[in-house]
User: Which sequence fits this backbone?
C-alpha cells in the first residue's frame, strides 16, 4: 500500500523535468536523489533508469533510449509495458513544468522525510495529514505551511518536538548545557602544563606549523603517484613508533625519545612492501639496495639493528585491498583496543568494490558517484578521529596537472575537492618544476645557505594553527623515506621564519 506521504504529482513532475533537462542531475550538489524518494514501483524504476543512463554518459534521453535500456531487464521491462510506459513518458515529458522544478523537488523530499519518520513509528499527522483531515480549510493550511518551510527547517521542527518529549519524560532533571565560562580555569591550567601540541612528526617544520599529531584530528597529504605520499606517511609512522633511527648526516643512531603505538592501514601496498619501506627509513639505507640485497658489511650491520628496532616498535600494519567503511572503523577500533594504537595512518582515500556496495545498500540501491564515495570516506575518517579520540593521517591522489598549478590547494585533489572540508590539516605535495626553481632563484641567490629543494609541500588548511597557506620547500630522499624542509615561504615566495624547537631531526 502506498504511503499517504507520497505526492505522485510532484514525483511525476520531477521525472518529467529531469527527462526534459538532464543537467538537473549534474554534479552540483543542489539536488540529491535517492530511490527512496519514489515509493511507487513504476516511478522508482523509471527514475532509476533515467539516473543510470545520465550517470553513465547519456546527455539527452528519448523514449527509444529508455526502452532499449530496459529490454535487457526482464522485470523492469514488464513493469514498463504494464504501465504503458511509452505513452506515460510522452505525457510526462510534454507536461513537465521546469520553471517550478524546485518546488516539486522540495515537495518530494519533504514527503520522503515524513515517510521516514513515520516508518520508525512517529506520528506525523500534526505536520501533515492529507487523508484524515475533513476540514478543508485546515487541510489547505497544513499544505501551505508544508510548502512554506524548507526541508531542513522541517527536520529541525520534528527533531525539536521529539527532544521536548525526551526532556519531559527522560531528561527532566538533567541539564547538559554548559555556561561557556565553566571549567575555563582548569582549561588554562591544563594548557600551561601541556600546551596544545601533539607528538612531533618527522619533519620539524610540519610539526611546528600543524601543532603535531593531535588526538581527535584528521590530516590529509595529497600527491600524485610516485611523489611519495606513502613514503612520507611511513616516515611519520616510524618516527612515532620507533625508539631510534640512523641519521646519515651525523653517521650515527639517534634516540627518538618516544615510542607511540601506531596503526598503518594500506589499501595498495602489501605487508612486505611496507616492511622494506620502514626498514629503509630506520636504517637510512636506500630501499632498492635492501630489496636487491646489495649491501656491504656496514649496511648489513645497520639493517640488522633496524630490524631489531622495527620488531621492538609500536607499529602495526594492516593490508586492506578491498574494504568497507565498517571494515576500516573496526580495524581502527581493534588496534586501539588490543594495541592501544591511537595514531592511525590510512593509505589512502580511494573507492573499493566493498565500499561502493556498502553505500549503495545504505542509499536504497541508488548508484553513487566516485566523488561522493571519497567524500563519505573522508567524513567517516574524521568522525572516527573525533569519536575514538585518535590521530588519523591519510592521503589522496591529485589531478594530473597539479604540479604545474600556481596555487596548490583543495582544487587540485582528484575525485572530490570537498574532501578538504572534513580535514583539520590539508596539504599537497608535488615535485618541484624548472619554473619553480626559476622563481626561487632570487631567494636562493640572496640566501644560498637555504639549499635547493626538489619537492614542495603546500599547506592550504591548518585548523587552529598559526600559519596557513604556505609552502614547505623540501629535500626528499625517496629511497630512504626522508623528507627534510629546507625553508618555508608564502604563496608569493616571501620567506617565512618558523620558530620551533629542534628535535635532532635530519
Assistant:
Amino acid at each position: 500500500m502506498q504511503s499517504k506521504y507520497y505526492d505522485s504529482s510532484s514525483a511525476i513532475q520531477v521525472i518529467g523535468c529531469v527527462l526534459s533537462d538532464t543537467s538537473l542531475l549534474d554534479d552540483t550538489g543542489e539536488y540529491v536523489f535517492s530511490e527512496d524518494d519514489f515509493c511507487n514501483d513504476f516511478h522508482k524504476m523509471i527514475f532509476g533508469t533515467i539516473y543510470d543512463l545520465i550517470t553513465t554518459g547519456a546527455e539527452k534521453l528519448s523514449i527509444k533510449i529508455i526502452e532499449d535500456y530496459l529490454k535487457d531487464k526482464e522485470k523492469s521491462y514488464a513493469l514498463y509495458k504494464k504501465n504503458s510506459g511509452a505513452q506515460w513518458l510522452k505525457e510526462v515529458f510534454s507536461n513537465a513544468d521546469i520553471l517550478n522544478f524546485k518546488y516539486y523537488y522540495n515537495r518530494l523530499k519533504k514527503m520522503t522525510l515524513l515517510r521516514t519518520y513515520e516508518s520508525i513509528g512517529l506520528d506525523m499527522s500534526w505536520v501533515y495529514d492529507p487523508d484524515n483531515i475533513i476540514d478543508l480549510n485546515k487541510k489547505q493550511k497544513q499544505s501551505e505551511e508544508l510548502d512554506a518551510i524548507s526541508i531542513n527547517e522541517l527536520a529541525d521542527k520534528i527533531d525539536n518536538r521529539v527532544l521536548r518529549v525526551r526532556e519531559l519524560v527522560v531528561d527532566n532533571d538533567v541539564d547538559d548545557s554548559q555556561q561557556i565560562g565553566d571549567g575555563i580555569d582548569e582549561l588554562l591550567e591544563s594548557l600551561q602544563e601541556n600546551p596544545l601540541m601533539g607528538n612531533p612528526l618527522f619533519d620539524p617544520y610540519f610539526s611546528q606549523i600543524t601543532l603535531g599529531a593531535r588526538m581527535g584530528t584528521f590530516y590529509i597529504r595529497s600527491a600524485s603517484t610516485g611523489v611519495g605520499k606513502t613514503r612520507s606517511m611511513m616516515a611519520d609512522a616510524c618516527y612515532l613508533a620507533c625508539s631510534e633511527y640512523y641519521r646519515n648526516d651525523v653517521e650515527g643512531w639517534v634516540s627518538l625519545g618516544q615510542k607511540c603505538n601506531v596503526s598503518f592501514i594500506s589499501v595498495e601496498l602489501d605487508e612486505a612492501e611496507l616492511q622494506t619501506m620502514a626498514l629503509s627509513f630506520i636504517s637510512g639505507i636506500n630501499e632498492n639496495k635492501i630489496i636487491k640485497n646489495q649491501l656491504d658489511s656496514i649496511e648489513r650491520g645497520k639493517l640488522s639493528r633496524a630490524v631489531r628496532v622495527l620488531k621492538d616498535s609500536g607499529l602495526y600494519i594492516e593490508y586492506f585491498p578491498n574494504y568497507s567503511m565498517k571494515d576500516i572503523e573496526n580495524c581502527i577500533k581493534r588496534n586501539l583496543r588490543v594495541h592501544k594504537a591511537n595514531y592511525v595512518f590510512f593509505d589512502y582515500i580511494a573507492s573499493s568494490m566493498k565500499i561502493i556496495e556498502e553505500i549503495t545498500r545504505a542509499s536504497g540501491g541508488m548508484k553513487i558517484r566516485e566523488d561522493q564515495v571519497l567524500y563519505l570516506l573522508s567524513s567517516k575518517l574524521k568522525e572516527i578521529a573525533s569519536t575514538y579520540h585518535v590521530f588519523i593521517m591519510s592521503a589522496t591522489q591529485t589531478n594530473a596537472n597539479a604540479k604545474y598549478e600556481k596555487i596548490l590547494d583543495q582544487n587540485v585533489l582528484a575525485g572530490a575537492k570537498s574532501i578538504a572540508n572534513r580535514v583539520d590539516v590539508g596539504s599537497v605535495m608535488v615535485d618541484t618544476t624548472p619554473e619553480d626553481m626559476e622563481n626561487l632563484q632570487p631567494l636562493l641567490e640572496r640566501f644560498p645557505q637555504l639549499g635547493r629543494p626538489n619537492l614542495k609541500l603546500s599547506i592550504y588548511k591548518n585548523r587552529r594553527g598559526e600559519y596557513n597557506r604556505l609552502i614547505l620547500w623540501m629535500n626528499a630522499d625517496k629511497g630512504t623515506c626522508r623528507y627534510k624542509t629546507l625553508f618555508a615561504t608564502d604563496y608569493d615566495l616571501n620567506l617565512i621564519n618558523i620558530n620551533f624547537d629542534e628535535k635532532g631531526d635530519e
About this structure: The longest helix spans residues 101-119. Confidence is low (pLDDT under 50) at residues 170-174, 502-506. The chain has two domains: 8-169, 198-496.
